[in-house]
């Protein structure tokens, strides 16, 4: 298993392992494509490893089976949910099965991907399961963002942030997929150190409608053209596309705020980050960021996509204008 970057997250996990106090419930957070699934697999190996020395040893039978996704005691609930989405009934059935002892050893690891996509009902269904854990159950959660996750759930997990890698690791990772250094440099300027997002873009190209909609909306915001922003977001057809586009806009606003205040270098979405930073005050960018987070949370409530697109554009422009009026 090759892991690029993620140095701070790996250091935190190593500290847990070396101290002998590994949390029973971990939450790995970071942008979509940043490598949370890879790190979740690696963490599951740390739980399951029976080898000598530093864990995971990457050599024992438990590590190998976990890496290959064939270990019967490392389970991924989302993969068995109907239509690939969490629902309360299937979640209750899964939880009931986890009260039975593991198949092969002393530990079962449950990897709950996309915790932030769970409804409130599903998150509440999980709550007792994680706050009163059986000795043989361990939990790993992943989420793009913490905001949609209930505070009652957050208070019962140990959160670890998964960072993007630097340009050297990014180029090395893409090289393994046949992408040369020149193209890797272009992709780093667009996606920062987000390897997954870059690979997905290379694979899908112009089919990544949500990406193109997000950057067009960003350009419209920078040019202060609300109609163009509305047209860009209105091109999206599904709730998932709107969700992904809002995630990109939130990232751009966060980067722009850091860049504007002299605390960031605008490595990710470089052109758009600089355009927003040039077009708006720090107060306005911060307001747009806060508003994008609010809208991001609302995108889970299954809104009418067209109406929601209009609300997004209006809300972002209103946020910027209200900050400038102060």
Q: Give the radius of gyration.
A: 21 Å
CATH topology of the largest domain: Rossmann fold
- Residue stretches low in confidence (pLDDT < 50, at least 5 long) are none
Task: State the end-to-end distance.
Answer: 52 Å
Mean pLDDT across every amino acid position:
87
Q: Write out the strand line-up for the largest beta sheet, numbering strands in chain order.
A: 2-3-4-1-5
Question: How many domains would you count in the coordinates?
Answer: 2
Structural class: alpha/beta
CATH-defined superfamily of the largest domain: P-loop containing nucleotide triphosphate hydrolases
Shape: globular
Secondary-structure topology with pairs:
Layout: H1 7-19, E1 25-29, H2 36-48, H3 61-67, E2 74-75, H4 88-97, E3 108-112, H5 120-131, E4 137-143, H6 151-154, E5 158-161, H7 167-175, H8 181-191, H9 195-204, H10 209-223, H11 226-234, H12 239-260, H13 270-279, H14 282-298, H15 305-325
Parallel strand pairs: 1-4, 1-5, 2-3, 3-4
Helix pairs in contact: 2-3, 4-5, 7-8, 10-11, 10-12, 10-13, 11-15, 12-13, 12-14, 14-15
For the structure shown, list the relevant keywords.
single chain, about 325 residues, alpha/beta, Rossmann fold, Zinc Finger, Delta Prime, domain 3, 2 domains, 5-stranded parallel β-sheet, 15 helices, about 55% helix, globular
